[in-house]
Amino acid sequence: MLDALDCLRSAITIFDGAGRLVYANAHLNYLFRSFPPHQTLLGRTYEELIALEIEGGEIAVSALAGGIKPFIALRLRQLRKNEFVPLDVALADHRVVEIKARRDSSDRTVLLWTDVTAARAQLARLREAISLSAEAFAFFDANDKLILANELYAHLCGVQTLDELIGKTFREIAAQGANSGRIVLDETPQQWLERRLKSHREAAGAVTIRANTGEAYLARDRASPNGGRVLIFTDVTDKVRAETALAEQEHALANANAQAEQQQSYLADLARRLDQASASVDSAKTTLLRTMSHELKTPLNAILGFSDLMATLADNLAPAQIREYAGLVHQGGNNLLKMINQIMDLTKISAGRYDLRLAPMDAGGVLWMMREIFLQRAATRGIEIEAGRCPVGLMAHADEAVFTAMIHALLENAVTFTTGNRITLSAQATQAGVRITVEDNGEGVAAEDLARIQEPFEHAGQGEGTGHSKGAGLGLTLIKAFAELHGGRLELDSRLGEGFRASVTLHPAPLSAAS
Question: Which of 53, 76, 223, 360 is the most buried (most CB within 10 A)?
Fold first, then answer.
């Protein structure tokens, strides 16, 4: 049993009724590295252990700022009966140790020492973030007691400091507000309180609270995963935020329209050139116009539609609605920009004007990075991404930005279109070079379609020019072009019902550079 306690990641010490150490596990020496072996500390008092901490330089200067004697007295207080409040001790190496004490019926005291540095740093960052926010924040625990808030929330509640609110229940704080006279009520305080509590108990609720000073706040109330609640109060009396957001979106819309007009001009010029080509090129031109017409209209309709709504309803839209519409406008602009970039890259490559910046790069490392980027999106579709065969340090000779974009596109295709539940990433050195593979266990593609889908504007399992909802059909074309620009190749392997595999092979990095 004692050996098992030595394996814990927390230190355990037991003091007898006289305050002398009768047991300590091995983790005590991890927390305080200047201590002699924990077995030699038996028989010493808790005060002697504290003195060893100070003499060994373990305690932070800030913790001793009030004097050594008050610091020792504060620590010894934990050995008293009915003293259950945990104590944080700041160490000189910037760690924070939380000490919890419990005294049993035999007057023995058990102290549990835990490194809470990461938790305290996270809490400090959260406090700093909400203190800088322009909105009032409040966090309630599973017992509906206030555990964290910013000063703006205290101001809204009509108190001078947060200490007057911490530990109170939501009902107590809401009742205080209802009876304070600061809130404009259209009903009795009790009726208002019951309605407020009902909204508070819902998974997600929102109410508008009007102050007698003429201010109005939108109070949004959400359940948190740990059973608590999060409250956010937004000042909705000031329309400057909404007007600023609207002006920014009008500017973004003007830029998006300008880009769309440039793209339309480019497509018109491209169409004139295609008219002079062969019959096969003429067919590609027709497909281009049909595909691009749909791809341009879809995001442009979204951009124009939601911008018209913002312009027409500017005075009535809430900030949340404006952010939602702005996000849709932004998404439409991103779709246009992605299509433009793909066409421009293909044009540069075909004209021999795309310059690569070749250098040794870690192919396995890029695969692991891409896996992290797509993990959450894949999880929402019930897809697992495996990368066990991606050794870090497998160096390829490539343009890292272009290579990253190629792997991003392959993994995005797999996450978006696979009907399976697993995507496998791998990287290996072969005689041909460094081979990177993205494979899924979905329905796959018919073998006769593999060559066709590498051509511009083609989609798996569909006729020419169809499937616009899945994109313009330029992704694999661009990946193939980039691979060949590197002196490598793209290989596709699939059969219906047997999954889909895409492999990119590039030259390995020179041995001197790789080492």
Answer: 53
